[in-house]
Amino acid sequence: LDDSLAVCDFRIAMGTYLTVVGVMGILLIGCVVFCIAKQISKLPGRQDLFLMSIMLNDVMLGVASLIWGLGVLDTRLCGVSETGELNGFCTQWPIFRENAVKKSFVTSSIPLTFDRFFSIVLPDQHPVWVTYDTSLIMMGLQWLPFLLLTCWDFASYNMGLLEIVYDERWHKCVTTDRRTMENLQVTMYIFIPIAILGTLYGIMIYNILKKGLKWAKQARTAMMISGSAVAFTIPSIFIHFHLVDGFSYEELIVFESLHYLGCVLNPVIYLCNQPAYCKEAVGEDCGGHQKHSEGGFNTVPKREGKE
Q1: Is the per-residue pLDDT at 270 higher than 90?
Q2: Residue 39: enclosing H or E segment and its boundaries?
Q3: Is 173:79 a contact under the CB 8 Å cutoff?
Q4: Which of 270, 10, 168 is nearest to 281 (CA)?
Q5: What's the pLDDT tens digit per position in 122-180?
Q6: Number of other residues whose CB lies within 10 A of the CB of residue 254
Q7: pLDDT score of 246
Q8: Residues 236-246: pLDDT tens digits?
Q9: What's the Cα-to-Cα distance from 193 to each of 3, 31, 75, 104, 233, rounded to whole Å?
Q10: DSSP 8-state class, residue 219
Q11: What is the pLDDT of residues 5-38, one digit of tens each?
Q12: R_g (Cα) of the chain, nearest Å
C-alpha cells in the first residue's frame, strides 16, 4: 500500500511538473514573440525568420510537455478511455510528438549559427551569402526532415505498418517496433546537426581567438541557444542507446523530462540577451542608437524593409 501511494504521489508530482513546464514555456515564448514584433523594424528580415523558427520549435516542445503532463495526471486527457481503448487523438498525436521532440532545439539553431559564422569568419561575404532569400532556403532545409519523416510515419500508420499503444510505464501513447525509423530520426535530428554545429563553432572559436575575444560578442546569443540545445538533447541520446536501463522508474521519468526544460530556457536566454542580440544583428541597440563596435557588428548592414 505504501509503495502504491508513493507511485501515485510521484505520478501527480511529475504530471504537475510537466504541465507547468509546458505552460511556462508557451507563455515565455509568447513574450519573445511580442518582443520580436516590437523590434521587427530594427532586426534584419533573416533574424525574424531565425528567431521565429526557434520559437516554433519551442512551442511544439511546450505543447508536447503540456499534453504529456495532463496525460500523466489523467490518462483520459491523452486519449485513453477508462476501459483502456485509444481514441483518435492518441492514435495520431504520438507520431507528431516523437518527431517534434527529437527535432526540437539542435536543428533549429543551425541557420542562426550559419548567420553568426559568416559574420565572424567571412564578414565581407556575410551580406552576399546570408540574405533573406538564402535564409528562407536554410529554414526550409532545416524543417524538411521533420516534414518528410512525420509524413512517412503517418503513411506507415494508415497502411498498418506502424502500431501505437499506451505505455503504462511512460504514461503516454507511443509507437512500437520502429527501431530503424528511430535510428533515422536520431541521425537526422541530432547527430548530423551536432556535427554541423561542432564544425561551425570550432572554426568560429579559432577565428575569435585569432582576431580577438571582442568578436565573441557576435556569437554569444547563438552559442548559448546552441549549447542549451545540445545539453537538453542528451537525455534523448541516452534513452535511445539504452544507456539508462539501470535507472529506476522515477529516475528514468525525471531524466526524460529534462529534455522539455529547453522550451523554458530558450526564451529566457533570448529575453536576457535581448539588447545584446539587437547589437549582434544590426550594430545598434533596441532603441535604435547606432553602436560602431570594433568587433565588426556593422558588417551586417541595416536594411530597408526585408533583405
Answers
A1: no
A2: helix 2-39
A3: yes
A4: 270
A5: 888 888 888 888 888 988 888 998 899 899 988 988 888 888 888 877 778 888 767 78
A6: 16
A7: 77
A8: 888 878 787 77
A9: 43, 27, 35, 11, 11
A10: G
A11: 666 788 888 889 999 999 999 998 888 877 767 6
A12: 21
C-alpha cell at 254: 525525471
**Three cell numbers written together for 202:** 570550432
Residue 137 half-sphere exposure toward CB, CA atoms < 13 A: 8
Q: How far apart are CA 159 and CA 41, in angstroms?
A: 48
CA distance 132 to 47: 9
Q: How far apart are CA 271 and CA 194, in angstroms?
A: 25
Looking at the chain, how many residues does it have?
307
- Give the DSSP letter of residue 167: E
* pTM for this prediction: 0.80
- Alpha-carbon distance 75 to 166, whole Å? 9
pLDDT interval class at 40 (50, 70, 90): low
Whether 283 and 292 have beta carbons less than 8 Å apart is answered as: yes
Burial 10-43 (b: 16+ CB within 10 A, else e): eeeebbebbbebbebbbebbeebbebbeebeebb
Q: For residues 191 and 233, is the Cβ–Cβ distance under 8 A?
A: no
Helix (H) or strand (E) holding 293: none
- Cα 59 to its chain centre, rounded Å, is 9
Give the torsion through C-alpha atoms of 273, 235, 151, 53, to 10 deg.
Answer: 0
| d(C-alpha 58, C-alpha 229), whole Å | 11
DSSP per-residue string spanning 228-268: HHHHHHHHHHHHHTTTTTTS-HHHHHHHHHGGGGHHHHHHH
